[in-house]
Amino acid sequence: MNAAIITIGDELLNGQTIDTNSSWLAQELNLLGINIALKFSCGDSQEPVRDALQLSSERADLIITTGGLGPTKDDITKKSICDFLSDELRFDQGTYDNILALLKSRGRGMTELHKNQCYMPGSAKLIANSQGTAPGMWMEHEGKIYLALPGVPREMKAIMKPLGLGMIANRFSGEYIIHSFIQTAGCGETIISEAIQPIVDRFPASLSIAYLPSIASVKLRITAKGKDFDILQTWVKKFTDEISFEIKEHVYGFGELTLSEAVGQLCLRYKIKLATAESCTGGLLAQLITSISGASSYYQGSIVAYSNELKMNLLRVPDDLLALQGAVSEAVVKQMVRGAIAATNADVAIATSGIAGPTGGSIDKPVGTIWIAVGTRETQETVKLQLNKDRIGNVQYTAVTALNMMRKFIEKNFA
Amino acid sequence: MNAAIITIGDELLNGQTIDTNSSWLAQELNLLGINIALKFSCGDSQEPVRDALQLSSERADLIITTGGLGPTKDDITKKSICDFLSDELRFDQGTYDNILALLKSRGRGMTELHKNQCYMPGSAKLIANSQGTAPGMWMEHEGKIYLALPGVPREMKAIMKPLGLGMIANRFSGEYIIHSFIQTAGCGETIISEAIQPIVDRFPASLSIAYLPSIASVKLRITAKGKDFDILQTWVKKFTDEISFEIKEHVYGFGELTLSEAVGQLCLRYKIKLATAESCTGGLLAQLITSISGASSYYQGSIVAYSNELKMNLLRVPDDLLALQGAVSEAVVKQMVRGAIAATNADVAIATSGIAGPTGGSIDKPVGTIWIAVGTRETQETVKLQLNKDRIGNVQYTAVTALNMMRKFIEKNFA
């Protein structure tokens, strides 16, 4: 069972809008066992929409369009679909009444643009949109389903969540698709894939794996596809367990867990208060940690000591140490950990100091030289990185690596 | 001059990765006067990639693919392009040497997977990738250009920014397109567009304007398109001046300037040291300010006082004030400004305190209640926001608003 998604709108092609509809639809359809075979984006003109409909109808059983239905759009979608399905636009009184009621509730009247919206393909079954004026349109032609949805994500979901997805599910019952995710950090895609290759070689035909790398971390996705839900679940569980055991030192969690959440859960579990002392990460560690709702129950805060003055005054780094070793040194990040703990009453702290670039490097300490320390008042562990990304890349890599070090430190010392 | 973009990867079709490459490419190509005619996303298999190449070659002169080139990918892209262009994969010693050197610098060795990456379409001109192992591939066939890029955004940009875009620009010259950008903050799109409509009404036919809103800010883009470069430049300059004068209190800069850069430039000009004291923004202010290379010459740092303990100990907020007024109050953010200045020896400081949500609200102070203060030791200006976005949206809106307040404060008090 395959689907195609066609997103329509000039704003998607000139880069001013990032399409999030199709990823939401893909995730929801995946849960129903429906694969996306192909995805298109077209501007607001008929020819490419027709091309996309043609190719989609050859490759997919369900063709979903989003966009091109609003009052200021040129109704490209409806005209293109009508032409393609040899259908005609007809005035729909129900839509007219709905739009009139919606506008009244907002204290506004009907305009010509709104009236244009009331013409619908004659064969379309309309699906109510509680959030806007354009309903969803369900059409069938030569065994294929065509579903046209508005482009505003809130409206698209208001059609699909209560009604559209259920209509699709009722219509197609077939294969299941199950995903399982293993979250890893601190190790590259290639090394992980080589380590687990012997396990992947034993996958049954219904299973596949994908490596989804991001900065200093790799998400593994194990996918099972087939008709027997229980067997698929068993396979996915068995191989998720085997793989995560094989690379257990790199695994920080499962599902959609982030590294900040993993660290937060460890802090909650062992009743640990966390603080950070940031130089080169410049607040990013604090931001990652506080992006988790509820972080205030374990996170004391951060001293973003961008100047040496702050390192001395707030983190108690001695000025002779800064003069002798430089701010980017093992001794300084270790003292930053102790200083942050003293200033914030935390149990553990993370400290970073480095040269993120593009300026500030020297022969001894080129751009990309970064020291990280994690630990308690008594013990600190350190690492030196030599990175070659741009400023933002260096900072992000440092922050993720530092969070992962803290995760491992807590697991080793508090578990 | 038309282009097509083909993004390749199962992760784009199952909704697990949101494609940002194509919007970045579209924006950059637009600046060169190149329209995107069509956009596809295909999974990691040859048939849909071939379909997409076929349709693209019928509608576009430049066909760009992203993705499908990494070490664990199945090299779908290279094989599909070779088949489509009747080309063959050949071992490329230069790529081998580059990968070997890159791996050595990371202390790692070559694997079989890496060796597979060294086979390139025989006709391809390779474009260096400073951030990864897969170079860009530039191929020409029957008057069309095919450009294959890796899918990791950092790597894709590392190929396009220094070399790829220039190669494309050199290749196609026709009409000139000139853009001018006016950066505004603190005012919505509707109010700005109403204020400048009389000026826009006087635009010559070669000029157009677009409003590009983002959080708490709007970028105006004035575009001129035509054959006479000098005339276009004159028009763009004249109307950019007129418009920015009309809304001057909202304009913080031109071109690609960010608000953090604008604040940084003011600090440099008036020799002001800046600090921040953040509660609800949780380090985002620090991160925005330190994302600018050279920020260390005016930015002292941030105290991210997530706990009341830190507000008392490091920012000298009296405990009875916290008890009486609560952490989210005007009196507390004013004291946070004074406390941050005292702790960091800065001249000016920004402070934020609020309830970002989704939890933590009360009847008196619902989620989205946020106080901001900016000022010196002697004078502080404050504002109260009542926001209704999600956690991240509330934090971002607060940070941008706070930076804009600091910009206006410096302009008023130091200029």
Could you give a short description of this structure?
The structure is a homodimer of 415-residue chains. Chain A has helices at 10-13, 21-31, 46-59, 76-84, 93-105, 112-116, 153-171, 189-200, 229-246, 259-269, 284-290, 308-313, 319-325, 330-344, 391-414; strands at 2-8, 35-42, 62-66, 89-91, 119-121, 125-127, 136-141, 144-149, 176-185, 207-214, 217-226, 251-254, 274-278, 299-305, 348-354, 369-375, 380-386. By secondary structure, chain A is of the alpha/beta class.
What would you note in describing this structure?
The structure is a homodimer of 415-residue chains. With 415 residues, chain A is an alpha/beta fold. The first copy, chain A, has helices spanning 10-13, 21-31, 46-59, 76-84, 93-105, 112-116, 153-171, 189-200, 229-246, 259-269, 284-290, 308-313, 319-325, 330-344, 391-414, and strands spanning 2-8, 35-42, 62-66, 89-91, 119-121, 125-127, 136-141, 144-149, 176-185, 207-214, 217-226, 251-254, 274-278, 299-305, 348-354, 369-375, 380-386. Chain A has a 6-stranded mixed sheet, with helices on both faces. Chain A has a 5-stranded mixed sheet with strand order 14-13-15-16-17, with helices on both faces. In chain A, a hairpin with a 4-residue loop joins strand 16 and strand 17. In chain A, helix 3 (46-59) crosses helix 4 and helix 10 packs parallel to helix 15 (391-414). In chain A, 48% of the residues are buried. Chains A and B meet through helix 2, strand 2, helix 3, helix 8 and strand 10 of A and helix 1, helix 2, strand 2, helix 3 and helix 11 of B. Strand 2 (35-42) of chain A pairs antiparallel with strand 2 of chain B.
